[in-house]
Structures are given as C-alpha cells and as structure tokens.
Amino acid sequence: AQSVTQLDSQVPVFEEAPVELRCNYSSSVSVYLFWYVQYPNQGLQLLLKYLSGSTLVKGINGFEAEFNKSQTSFHLRKPSVHISDTAEYFCAVSDPNDYKLSFGAGTTVTVRA
Amino acid sequence: DAGVTQSPTHLIKTRGQQVTLRCSPKSGHDTVSWYQQALGQGPQFIFQYYEEEERQRGNFPDRFSGHQFPNYSSELNVNALLLGDSALYLCASSGGDRSYNEQFFGPGTRLTVL
Lengths: 113, 114
Prior knowledge:
By secondary structure, chain A is mostly beta strands. Chain A has strands at about 5, 10-15, 20, 25, 30-40, 45-50, 55-60, 65-70, 75-80, 85-95, 100-105, 105-110. In chain A, strands 2, 5, 6, 10, 11 and 12 form a six-stranded mixed beta sheet that branches. In chain A, strands 3-9-8-7 form a four-stranded antiparallel beta sheet, with no helix packed on it. By secondary structure, chain B is mainly beta. In chain B, the strands form two sheets. In chain B, strands 2, 4, 5, 6, 9, 10 and 11 form a seven-stranded mixed beta sheet that branches. Chain B has a four-stranded antiparallel beta sheet with strand order 1-3-8-7, with no helix packed on it. In chain B, a hairpin with a 6-residue loop joins β4 and β5. The chains are: A mainly beta (about 110), B mainly beta (about 110). Chains A and B meet through β5, β6, β10 and β11 of A and β4, β5 and β10 of B.
C-alpha cells in the first residue's frame, strides 16, 4: 500500500521569495504522483502530475516538481510566490494498477507581503 | 466545459440520521470517486464507481454506500450518522482519454453532524 509524508505542515514565505514543499512516498511498485492545491472553502485543483517520462514536471501557476525515484520524493517548487498562492497543498500517490489516490496530510503555505 | 459539480454545498444533520450527497462528473468522464476530508487532514478514499458498480472501496464501514446512474452521476449515502462523520465530502471524476488515476475534484459538500 502506498503512503505519503509531507514533511512540513506549515510554510510561511514572503512574497516573491521561492518556496519548496517536500513530499516523500512509500511504495513497492511504480507510482503516479500528483500535487493538488486547495484554496479556503474550495475543492482540490490539480497543479501537476507525474505519470511517466521526464522527471521534471511543470504545472499551472508557475509550479514545478521533480520525481526522484531513488529518494522516493516528489518535491514541489515555485521560484517566486504571490499572495494568491496562500493555500493548502496536498501531495498524492497512486498505483497505476489501482484507482484510489492516497494523500498526505497537507502543507499550509502562507505568503506575506 | 462544466467541471465536477456537487450538491448540496452545505448540510446539517443530527446523529442517527441519513444523508445523500450528489455528484455530476466532468463531461467525458465515466468514473466517480468519493473522498472524505476531515478538518485539518488530507482526503481519504471512500470508494469508486465505474459502469454503475463499486469498483474499489477504502477502509470505511458499510454505513457508507453509493450508487452510479447510467448518465455517470453518483450518490453517496451515509446511514446512522455519527459526530465523526462531520467532514468535507469530495467527489472526483476521471476517465475518457486520461488515466483513471488522474482525478478532477468538485467543490465538495460540507456535512455537519450535531
């Protein structure tokens, strides 16, 4: 069974500074990996996904993530954040032969001016 | 292109009651998954419906049941509500020309059990 650990529960960051959100997964098989964002009182929006191919994945809103199989990690990065990036971010893993997503506990990003 | 829609947006029930939540998938999708998100936690998989059958189930009791209709929309039913069932219930759809693992979420239904 897959599981996800998001290493930071809260990340405060200043506007226009870079941010990195860390995600580690445990799985004995190949995986699909996802990052979702949740704004207050809303559902989840897909930021980016890794299914196969290039390990550097680019998503919406300037976010990117790198799949590192040897370290079983899928860290999310943005070079310059905006106030509007304040939200909850979730990393999720899925087995290609399975159908469910297993989520981490989330990382709260607060961007300050 | 309409995304995933859910109704109602908010619901208040008392312990022991039953509730039905509804979901319409994104156009072109044939699969619906349901997740429970307790306050301050990540979503937990409840079950997935495909071709009107429950294809996979998470670690939830039988009080949680569902249904999928021929038009791919879905319902989540919860019987004998407990205080601990208070959560945001998220519906996600997938399918079409994309992997079934690539799921698109609706805005959720906030259920409060008093």
